[in-house]
Write a structure and sequence with these properties.
mainly beta; Immunoglobulin-like; 3-stranded antiparallel sheet
Length: 124
């Protein structure tokens, strides 16, 4: 009797970037995984390399290439990664890790748009 092993490859999203301001928070953007049909999870920690992959920061699967973290504490440094997730729940390896800190009354302020682009508001 033959036994088969199914290997599922999920390619990592790349180019994770973070931009911060006093509000709306930490805007994360990344480039898509080359694996089709995936969604994304974002993971956050307060120390480098300490993300808890059992608990994503997002409450629902992310289908876009951006996420706006509004659950931050001003002045706290956070570290973020994102992973692609298949419909079967298989995670890709984590993206590059980025670091961000939200300052009170941050200006100029970047807005995380629906298109995943950054827009600069104000002139400082």
């Amino acid at each position: 009797m033959k036994k088969w092993c199914l290997l599922v490859l999920v390619f990592v999203p790349v180019g994770l970037l973070a931009q911060t301001c006093g509000a709306p928070g930490v805007c994360l953007t990344w480039q898509a995984s080359t694996t089709t049909g995936v969604t994304y999870n974002v993971y956050r920690a307060t120390a480098a390399g300490q993300e808890n992959y059992a608990t994503p920061l997002n409450s629902a699967a992310i289908t876009d290439l951006f996420f706006n973290d509004t659950t931050y504490v001003v002045g706290t440094t956070y570290f973020y990664v994102t992973c692609a997730v298949t419909t079967g729940g298989v995670l890709s390896p984590p993206s590059n890790e980025v670091q961000a800190q939200v300052y009170p009354n941050g200006a100029p302020c970047a807005v995380c748009l629906m298109a995943g682009d950054f827009v600069q508001e104000g002139d400082g």
